[in-house]
Amino acid sequence: MTHKFSLRVYYEDTDLAGIVYYANYLKFIERARSTIVHEAGIDQMDMQRDGLVFAVKKLEADYIGSAKLNDELRVETNLKQVTGAKIVFAQNVYCTDALLFSSFVTVVCVTNLGKITRFPAKIRAKLADMSN
Asked: Is the pTM of this model over 0.90?
């Protein structure tokens, strides 16, 4: 399943030339992942109360093109792998049909002490359901 998240490029997202600042693509894909988690029925505040949070462990990114002020962007996300230890997302950012940014993001579960731990089974199940 491909999850689609739309957004518009605002002035605050750009540099002086009106081109999206490179680090903002990471914000765009983070918003898309947060939306997926929410739509899967996972309450991150409940996770925090249980002493768990999501954390990015690894990121591979390719910058292919440039978005500009007022562009309408689409983040397409696919869950590539959901295991007890990690979740791997493939995320691409498009303007119309032009691919601008491509990434693979590995997310892990971390305790409030900063130790990587297994994802609770109910979280894995909810995310696995989203990938079908």
From this structure: yes
